[in-house]
Amino acid sequence: MKRTLCVLLLLVLIAMSLSACRQRDVDEVDTGVAVPEAVTPLDSSPSAPETTTDSSVPTDSDDGPLDVDAIEKELEAIQQELDNTALPDDSDFAEIEDGL
Amino acid sequence: MRITANRLVRGLFVGVLAIAMLAPTVALAAPAGNSTRAAAVADAQVQQLEQRVINALRNRANRFENYAAMLERHQERLLALCVKVEAAGGDCAEVREQLRLSVETMEQARVQEQLAAGMFGDIPDAGDKRGVFSRARVQARASVQMLQRSRNELQTATRALFQVVKDLRAETSE
User: Fold this and answer.
1) A37 touches chain B (CB under 8 A)
2) E-state strands within chain B
3) Which of A49, A93, A96 lies at the smallest CB-CB distance from B70?
4) How many CB atoms lie within 10 A of CB B39?
5) Exposure b/e, A38-74, CB count within 10 A at least 16 = b
6) CA A4 to chain centroid
7) Would you call A68 an interface residue with chain B, using a CB distance cutoff of 8 Å?
8) pLDDT tens string B108-140
9) Distance of CA B127 to CAs A57, B102, B132, B153, Å?
10) Which of A71, A83, A97 sits opposite B133 (nearest CB)?
11) pTM over 0.90
12) Which among A77, A55, A49, A63 has a CA at the least distance from the CA of B78?
């Protein structure tokens, strides 16, 4: 008797899991998209060049008449960035020198 | 008594023979083990140095390219402004010449930097590691000097354009 009950229970479980699987397949066909298992983070892009130009500096638009004030301010901003941005130096190779 | 003496002599002879045969083997085996260990240590050091070189070159390439990208962005922008200023009657011949020089020097800086990177890459396998490192660093300094020259030429171009715009303003207000 016990053995029969166990077999019956097992059969019911198998039937339930099969119907669940079929339902999931139907959902996928309906939406055309499989259920995502995990969200993979976007690959980090190579580091963009550091920019220090102030976005508030007016830039002369390419259309319309020449805006001398805007050009002068833009040139000042460029000059400032050129003055202030540090060049690469020997410190980049300190790691190698330490390992020698 | 005689038999015991014979046995002792025979035993002694076998013992001496065994020592004579084993001694060279042991003597040869000991240095071989040491040299294997030394080679493994040397390999590990070379690998560690290779990793250091890779890291340093990656960081350096980022810094170099960031700076180069900044210069190129300004070169392009100045060129675009030149077109506008010329359309309004300004003379940008000097600005254009300085920009051309700046672009040219920038290209040379890139070539120099590639050379330096190659020299740094040779360090792990070199016999005279310190010597190769010193020469590579000198080469890297030369590439930075070119970068600096390109920057100076761009600054000159900026100042020249500034003057052209100033003259244009004066002409307009007259």
Assistant:
1) no
2) none
3) A49
4) 10
5) eeeeeeeeeeeeeeebeeeeebbeeeeebebeebbbb
6) 56
7) yes
8) 999 999 999 999 999 999 999 999 999 999 999
9) 54, 39, 9, 40
10) A97
11) no
12) A77
